Amino acid sequence: MNYDVFMAGFGGQGILLIGNLLAYAGIIEGRNVSYFPAYGVEKRGGAATCTVVVSDDEVGSPVIGNPGAALILNPLSMEKYFSRVRPGGLCIINSSLVEDAGDGRDDIQVVRIPINDMALELGDPRLLNMITIGAYAELSGAVSLDSLKGALKDVLPKRNHRFIPMNVEAIDRGAAYAREAAGRAA
Amino acid sequence: MQKRLLVKGNEAVAMGAIEAGCRYYFGYPITPQSDIPEYISREFPNVGGVFIQAESEIASINMLLGASACGARAMTSSSSPGISLKQEGISYMAGSELPGLIVNICRSGPGLGGIDASQADYFQAVKGGGHGGYHIIVLAPDSVQEMYDLTMLAFDLSDRYRVPAMLLGDSVIGQMKEALTPHPYISPGDLPAKDWAVSGKDGRPQRVVKSLFLGDGELEEHNWKLHRKYQELKDKEVRYEASDLDDAQLVVTAFGSTARIAKTAIRMAREEGLKVGLLRPISLFPFPEKAFLETTSKVKRVLCVELNTGQMVEDVRLSVARDADVFFYGRPPGAGSLPTPEELLAQIRKHYKD
Amino acid sequence: MSTEMKQVFSHPDSLKDVQTHFCPGCQHGTTHRLVADAMDAFGVQDRTIGVASVGCSVFLYGYFDIDVVEAPHGRAPAVATGVKRVHQDKIVFTYQGDGDLAAIGTSEIIHAANRGEGMTVIFVNNTTYGMTGGQMAPTTLPSQKTSTSPYGRNVSTDGYPIRMAELLSNLEGVTYSARVAVNSPKNILQAARVVKKAFEVQVKGQGFSFVEVLSACPTNWGMNPLKANARVESEMIPYFPLGTFKDSTAA
Question: Residue B260: its chain A contacts at CB < 8 A?
Answer without folding.
Answer: 59-63
